[in-house]
Amino acid sequence: MTRRKLIAGNWKMNGDAAALAELDGIAAAAKAAPRVDVAIAVPATLIAPAHARVPGLSIGAEDIHAADKGAHTGCVSAAMVKEAGASFTIVGHSERRADQHETDADVRGKAEAARRNGIAAILCVGETLEQRDAGHAEAVVTAQIAGSLPEGAAADWLSIAYEPVWAIGTGRTPTVGDVAAMHGAIRAKLRALIGGEADKMRLLYGGSVTPDNATELLGASDVDGALVGGASLTAAKFVPIIEAAAKL
User: Per the count of CB atoms within 10 A, which of 17, 39, 181, 211 is most buried?
Assistant: First the structure.
């Protein structure tokens, strides 16, 4: 089955109004690669101005709350980011699982909130170096899939991003064989949970994706795109990744 590549950026806690100029080059590259879907998740403060600046580019949120409203000081809901111009959100990023102690149930609730409010979600899973070295990587990741997968999971609104925690921002990456093996295990787990819909769902790789390794990683079996952190902050580094996907 042919699945469109998705190249998604995650700015994390970076960026200001001046940084939005980088989106011009990214939007131009996206327009020049019609067979590739391109998306950028920005800090909540930048969603509205980013959407206004490049209305043809998919702008998303880096996180949402599972509730639609309520006494949750400092949080933002799916409805709020959608009103600001977001068409998707990231949920379950390893940094939130670690730093904010989010559980699989928390992540599942956020993904369901995204669906309830009509925006897409990129659901992140991944193991630590200790878990990989102990030989538990696939067991950990497939358990996260089982625990985090939302009700009504379907390819038209949900993608899965595999991000080995130990590779994020470190410059280290697993081998292409390791990535392909993990994506195969994720696909098999999804088939067990949601049947044939699993073959339509895009599986992204995230973890120190750069212009130098993008072609090799994106060409691996069952890799349908990338979730890119640091390299998405500038057009100079992000555009080559889009171009690599367009050539596959």
Answer: 39
Q: What pTM, to 2 d.p., does this model score?
A: 0.98
Distance, CA of 213 to CA of 231 (rounded, Å): 12
| Alpha-carbon distances, residue 18 vs 129, 161, 193 (angstroms) | 36, 29, 44
Enter the CATH code of domain 5-246: 3.20.20.70
Alpha-carbon distance 169 to 192, whole Å? 32
Instruction: Tell me which residue of 243, 245, 139, 162 sits closest to 208, measured CA to CA.
Output: 162
In the three-class reduction of DSSP (H, G, I as helix; E, B as strand; rest coil), residue 222 is classed as coil
Scored b (16 or more CB within 10 A) or e, 218-233 reads bebebbbbbbbbbbbb
- Say if residues 233 and 22 touch (Cβ distance below 8 Å): yes
| Domain extents in the chain | 5-246
Q: For the segment 83-110, what is each residue's pLDDT rounded down to a tens digit?
A: 999 999 999 999 999 999 999 999 999 9
